[in-house]
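Sanity check record (used in CI):
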Amino acid sequence: MTIEATTGPDVQATGQPFTLPEAPGDLKRRLDAGQAIAWYEAVEIPTYEPHEPSTFPMYLDHRVYQGSSGRVYPLPFTERIDSAPTMRRWSAIHVENQYIRVMILPELGGRIHVAYDKTTDYDFFYRNNVIKPALVGLAGAWMSGGVEFNWPQHHRPATFLPVESTVENHDDGSVTVWCSDHDPFARMRGTHGIHLEPDTSTIRLDVRLHNRTSLPQTFLWWANVAVRVHDDYQSFFPEDVRFVADHARRAITAFPQADRPYYGVDYQERAAETPGADRIDYFRNIPVPTSYMVVDTDHEFFGGFDHAVGAGFVHWADRRVAPGKKQWTWGNAPFGQAWDRLLTDADGPYVELMAGVYTDNQPDFSWIAPGESKRFSQYWYPIPAIGVAHEATPDAAIHVEHDSVFSAALAVTSPQSGARLRVLSPAGDEVFADSADLVPGAPWKVTVHVPYAAGMTIALESSDATVLVEWTAPVEFEGAAEPWTATAPPAPAEVGSVDELFYIGLHLVQYRHPSRSPLPYWTEAIRRDPWDSRVLTALAELAFRAADYEVAFEHAERALARITGRNGNPRHTETLYLLGLIESRRGNDRAARTAFAKASWDAAFVTPAGLEMARQSARSGRFEAALHDLDELDAVASDDRRRGPLQVVVLRRLGRHAEAHAILERLRTQEPLNPTLAYLDSGQLPTDGHLALDVALELGQSGEDDAALEVLAAVSRMGANGSGNVGPLAHYHRAVILGRLGRTADAAAERAAARSSDRRWCFPAGLDDHDALLAAVREEGDPVAASLLGMLLFDVGRREDALELWEDAIRAGSEEPLLHRNAGLASYNIAHDDARAVEHYDRAIELDPDDARLLFERDQLAARLGETDEERLERLTLRYDVVVARDDLVVEYAELLVRTGQPEDALALLEERSFQPWEGGEGRVLGAWDHARAALGLPIVDPPLSLGEGRPLYAAPAARRADGEVDYFATSLPDLLLFSRE
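Expected output for DUF5107 domain-containing protein:
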């Protein structure tokens, strides 16, 4: 796997800001004329490059990550970062107007990396002057700084992957930079646009999330804003925020003064020793890694303010869809400072002030229907020296003081000539007024010569009497009601009703719970009522997602028997729609169409069912019927972005090229980064193989077999990148189309090409990959297809089937380290065959003796099989040159040395190495170091910096209970849990 970027020799990080380029001449003239501008220009930044990811798939479905599932498959997993930087040229997009400057990195998820206030000479987002990832991300590498746009879960799975991008200039002098990709798991499309207008200091983020799949999906959206902090940096929430909550609402505390122990810290006790130490709105007072999220507010803003500099920022969003307001910190103590060193060279600590849309907690997922698009906007702007905002809108912010003197400080985001400040009594009478000419970056401070009273209002109005911001003095009240905290659900047998059993299972699915399955709850529900339609439909969907079409069909049929037993026209047609999808995959097109047609009687499913029927017509060559289906949808259904490419294809096949061209032009304006539209327009394909494969599959769904074959041929020649390798899969998909066209010899040649292709990082996923690989296994007994299909099935939970495929491939003569490793893992977890597991792992190591992950997993297996410390140490010592390639293996080796009476060697080994801990796995290296010192009779002291860890001041909440079970509310458990018997 190669990274397409130019790198220079090793460099010594200086801690100095990297240089932002000046705007090119013609754009500089437009900027001077008052317009907003944007341009592409690479920037050289010292970069610590991630190593190549492991070539083995990581089945981490039991891993707890940010409180939800840490499942990473099919993404490759990165386990090491370079220890020294190189100078790398990063593609960058620069956006600027007269007030602010923004830099976006499309090669890193389209994140904002720099947001600079020209009026105050202040980076209002945290500017990290190195690209220094640490092992924090879902797939390994993650970096701090700027704004990370997290979806469909946190952190963004594609945070260290490139996005497609384009610049759109508007007639009004504004500019939008669009970034778009398909999420690596469900392949939904996420597009965000960073928008600057000419005369405002506001960054507007326009987001479009589109479920381009045929099934409902879960998602969340958190914009993760980092800000540089110190003792005088204050985070602020609206004044009516009385309480904040931990992840999953497992705990709460008062805000801004914590009134109880939180994350193990007794803030009241600390405040008794140091007045003000219970104020958790100041970074300086939080000694441990801590999250807190607003429980409830009637307001739509929050932000942070740097009292030392006299500047800060405000976030604003419509709370109807954007209630999420959160702070996260590593903590102001040695533990957090160790993470600061791992993530930057000289730019100091930061906190994250995160803004959630369709979510107010983590993990907290919402649903997006098939074909649905969700659109929303978020706003950020810098504020000058007004202090923390007590009210804010996208137009202005206000800070109010009412101690000995009643005063207000205001900041605007655009020039306001003749702005007027009005103070109204609680009865609504004007009791004070003043006016001024205001501009961004210059605070307006006014002393109000009237008595302060609860319920009075201060309003800033424009010259035409439009209210820019309005603050009302809060009415004091005693004892805000205590918010609820979450509880773990009871065991299935203890749940009182089938209804509750269904909803507990649905919650576990929706929130992607990492350690609890919905199946025990739904199985208990079916035991009590074998015909419960909701549960049967949910079970059918689970089976369908796992490509177990026959089981899915049985559940759906039983559900429909209950639903239609007395009502042939059900109110809700979810089950009928699902049955249509199942029958389509089973090859029963007539039955599928019948189910889709009836499903479309329900307004909730008219859009997805109608699209499936139109696609079905197009695939069968009935293009007039397909166009009729689409025309009907245009008349009755909501917007579905999947319809446009299909409409263009159908019109072209009918010879109506002028209409197709007009529609395509309009669609390209609306969706400039839609890869299928780009291909239909110019034949241009994305450079990312997964995106290009999505284009081919969409063309195939539209009946464009020739075009799909052409795109798949191009995909097969694309190399691997950070998201994996789909080259072999492209050959198998071509074979399916060629076989359907009757070109059996060509289909066989494609499968042969797949078998001879480079399959590193080829991790198939999704129903289309499943069907293509299954066809190869059934038609040719293809051992490579069997190996690949086994990986897909193991990931979706069909693990017995996966092991059977892997053993079949081995019996057919396939000898690959990856295949034996996978079979060894499944032999232990699924078959409980210890001897076979050892046999497979030993054979994998024999085939690839230099792979440190294989040796690490073999040692983990040995520990679970009860091998002695001496046996394990002997095996590792024989391959010491491989052991030192991995931090975790070195830690295991050191612990074995201590337990076998060699603590001096263990201590020397640990102290001569620079470690890279992983988030949630903190303490492993430090623990081994402490154990070695204790065995030598040495005292507990602060660790050397080379360990990469700081000693925590307080014990974090335990992720595992005393009985070994993962706590229901665990938010971080890094154990790979590869070896977990089922």
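The CA atoms of residues 407 and 447 lie 4 Å apart. If this sentence no longer matches the regenerated tokens, the check is flagged for review.
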